[in-house]
Amino acid sequence: MRVMGLLGLVVALAIVGLLVKKQMSAMRAPLPSLAPAASAPGAPPATVRQQSQQVQQQVKEAMDAAMQQQRALPDEAK
Predict the structure, then answer these.
(1) Hey, where are the domains in the chain?
(2) What's this model's pTM, rounded to 2 decimal places?
(3) Which residue among 30, 34, 52, 63 is least enclosed by CB atoms within 10 Å?
(4) Alpha helices per DSSP H over 28-71
(5) What would the pLDDT profile of 24-71 be if each residue is shown by its tens digit?
(6) Quick one: which of 20, 24, 50 has its CA closest to 37?
(7) How far apart are CA 27 and CA 48, in angstroms?
């Protein structure tokens, strides 16, 4: 009985180890770089600060647009 429990524990540990290895290798994959959305051809590449500000502005605009939309109210029960 102890051998079966120990064997099950070793198998579970091996599965967890494989999953961790797979996850860690996925984290090492290179991330795609952010391309500036509104850059003119021949313009110098945007800095990280400019890209960050651009993303913040896009999120702000999306939130403002979402807040402007009216929500459908449910019918009142009579």
Answers:
(1) 1-26
(2) 0.36
(3) 30
(4) 48-68
(5) 887 776 655 555 555 555 666 678 999 999 999 999 999 998 888 777
(6) 50
(7) 21
